[in-house]
Design a protein that fits this description.
Blueprint: H1 2-20, H2 23-36, H3 41-53, H4 57-70, H5 75-87, H6 91-105, H7 110-120, H8 134-146, H9 150-165, H10 171-188, H11 191-201, H12 208-220, H13 224-237, H14 242-259, H15 263-271, H16 282-292, H17 296-307, H18 310-316, H19 320-334, H20 338-351, H21 360-370
Helix pairs in contact: 1-2, 2-3, 3-4, 3-5, 4-5, 5-6, 5-7, 5-18, 6-7, 7-8, 8-9, 8-10, 9-10, 10-11, 10-12, 11-12, 12-13, 12-14, 13-14, 14-15, 14-16, 15-16, 16-17, 16-19, 17-19, 19-20, 20-21
């Protein structure tokens, strides 16, 4: 009886995790499954995933450790444990586990790629061999963008989208890849490529993550009509999603308010979702609103708090790390602090040491450092 109940609980958890995006419900069902069978490795791994996606990293670490206690060489348990360690700013320990995962799976793990980027501020050269694993490919492209290799990154994103589009069941993955590319470029102000990517993605169905990414991209590039449309669609279609209800909708609403000149309203909206700061763009957006209000000091506070936990930021969006350093440098400069501005720009140049030579951010940082 327990075995049958365990299967039903895991299935219900998977439905909540993958179909509706209700992470709390998923975690609850997986917890029940572990109680129904205390040696169920899969249930502990899935519980760790649901906890990690909610930003409950210490809980995720405990659940993945329980899975490893039961099965020390299980790649998915090792990967989950490494991701939780990375989020908790234990990059060295995460990297050690990630090397084991890569050896077992035959391709670089997500935690390994992000850990290397966070620890060393260097991604793999653009010529590195591509993985056949979708999640690994996505991180490869993300790290290319995060290290300023935007031309190579754009090619990689489009390659991923093209490969996914061949299979109808994966067409939403194509939209996601293009949306991630668009978001990274919107963060840098490259709105021409952002718009092009949004047009390409219109051929594919977009899930909640892609819809959110395109909403942020549109807002950052001033297309408030598209931002408003995506916000309405997202809220209507995914009313049970933890991310949508928790911070996707509020982030998009705040972005719309900010770009419409309602700065105080935007800050109130973002503050209402501050419990999700660790897994969202909340702090970055608050800093941008403060800068738009010509208040560099609170912007600096937000960005410094965000950058104290690079592992958390990388799990949300690796490209947000160097772009937050850019924003911090601009905040220091706006406050007349050229010394700290130059230090922040030096970190940007460290991230972009393999970057495209014609990148405007590299030029901005280089000029500030030499002055």
């Amino acid at each position: 009886a327990n075995g049958g109940n365990r299967v039903k609980l895991v299935a219900a958890g998977m439905q909540a995790l993958l179909a509706t995006g209700n992470l709390q419900k998923a975690a609850s069902r997986f917890t029940e499954a572990t109680k129904a069978n205390s040696v169920d490795v899969t249930a502990f791994i899935l519980l760790s995933t649901a906890e990690r996606l909610q930003g409950n990293y210490k809980d995720a670490l405990r659940s993945s450790q329980r899975a490893l206690d039961l099965s020390p060489s299980e790649p998915e348990a090792l990967e989950e444990h490494a991701l939780a360690l990375l989020a908790l700013d234990q990059a060295d320990e995460a990297m050690q586990l990630a090397h084991t995962v890569s050896a077992l799976q035959g391709f670089r793990s997500t935690a390994g790629q992000l850990g290397s980027f966070v620890r060393e501020r260097v991604g793999e050269p653009a010529s590195s061999v591509q993985s056949d694993n979708f999640a690994s490919q996505v991180i490869e492209a993300e790290v290319l963008d995060a290290t300023g290799q935007f031309n190579a990154g754009l090619f990689r994103w489009r390659t991923i989208a093209q490969a996914a589009s061949v299979t109808p069941q994966l067409s939403s993955a194509a939209a996601y890849a293009l949306s991630a590319a668009a978001l990274d470029r919107a963060l840098t102000g490259d709105c021409a490529n952002t718009l092009s990517l949004e047009r390409e993605a219109s051929a594919y169905p977009a899930g909640p993550d892609a819809t959110f990414n395109f909403g942020i991209s549109s807002g950052l590039c001033g297309n408030l009509g598209d931002l408003r449309s995506r916000l309405i669609g997202l809220s209507a279609a995914y009313s049970q999603s933890t991310r949508v209800v928790g911070f996707y909708s509020s982030d998009l609403t705040a972005l719309l308010q900010w770009k419409s000149g309602a700065f105080a309203d935007a800050l109130v909206t973002l503050q209402s979702a501050d419990q999700y700061d660790a897994i969202s763009f909340n702090q970055y957006l608050r800093s941008q609103v403060y800068l738009a209000q010509k208040q560099p000091q609170p912007a600096t506070v937000e960005l410094q708090a965000m950058l104290r936990h690079p592992g958390e930021v990388a799990l949300v969006n690796a490209a947000a790390l160097p772009m937050s350093e850019v924003a911090l440098a601009r905040a220091f400069a706006a406050n007349g602090d050229r010394v700290n501005a130059a230090q922040a720009y030096k970190k940007v140049l460290a991230y972009f040491q393999r970057g495209d030579p014609d990148n405007s951010i590299v030029a901005e940082a280089s000029l500030a450092v030499t002055q």
